[in-house]
Design brief:
With 356 residues, the protein is an alpha+beta fold. It has 2 domains: 88 residues, Ribosomal Protein L15, Chain: K, domain 2, CATH 3.100.10; 232 residues, no CATH class. Helix content is 30%, strand content 30%. A 10-stranded antiparallel beta sheet has the order 11-10-12-13-14-9-15-16-18-17, with helices on both faces. Strands 1-2-4-6-7-8 form a 6-stranded mixed beta sheet. A hairpin with a 3-residue loop joins strand 12 and strand 13. Helix 10 packs antiparallel against helix 11.
Length: 356
Amino acid sequence: MTDNASVEHPLVDFAGDGYVATISDAPLVAATEGFASLAIDAAGVGKRLMLVTTPESRVTFGMLQLLAAIGAAWVVRRADGALRDALTGRAIATFDDAFRPSTTEMPDAAADYFAPVPNTQRWLQITVSVNHPPREKTVLGGSVELLAGQLANAVPVAWGVNEPAGLHWNRDNVTRFVRGRMPRESKIYVAGRGEHAMTATVRISRSSRGVTEETKILVALGEDEAVARTRIEEAPAILGRLADAQSVLVASAFLLRGRADLSIDPVLAAPPVPVAVVLGPRAVQDLAINLADVAARFGAFRAGRARIPSLVLPFTQEGRGSWQQFVDVAAEFSAVDVAKAFGLPDAASDARRGGA
């Protein structure tokens, strides 16, 4: 398709150089069927997608994942016409600039543009990729159930291919849906109910080793700071139990802050803080990790099968900040070796060229 191909869709409000834009003044913007169909139509003619909202608008966790997955931009437009990248806070002169590399190192006066987020509480975001054998008895959805129960005292109650999720949660039904779409990738949105608010997305795809299930779950830890600290301290052990139950490739836990309802404001209330990382058996083997050494130096511990263990690296030890603990561990490995261990040849090539 040529770059000047048009996108005929009711949600298109205007178009620019290589993109189409949709405008919303809704207080909360979700990954609805309409937005998903717009994303498909735009991709079909080689166009990128831009969401334009007011500074007061928020997006769901699922919508944020969709925007990231399709390389979309989220631009905030104030009543006076001033524009900002919603995720970085940087000022942009025109809508076209949203897709251009930034020429400034730090956003200027972003705090004066975005209103403070009221009544924030701690969030935990867990991202985990597990491998399943391509067998009839394989049942998906175990990761989101385990994490919801142990992090939020909650259970998944609904799922769907768009938001709001409207189908009753049932792992067998999810598995049948995904199996019927193979070898195409599937992505679903999951809603939960329990002591703490939770929401999740699950992406399932074929791989050279079977079926990869990637779960991203966001949990609000509540207003009680003592309870929140306990949950954070328990997170590495919970990831260890997940590695005991599933064949984990890699997992991570990060601490953020936001609203109790888990909606995402333009520019998060606080930058993410690392809590823990899990390296699956293949990564442990390929990186030639000395388990006793990293246990002694970084407080790491084994999980999973004794013969081919996973490794849990917590960043919650007292005396050193979480980011410093993360940096200390990351300094042990080269980007190329890590990319290879995770089976990411493109990432390895990027690392050789000096990329992130």
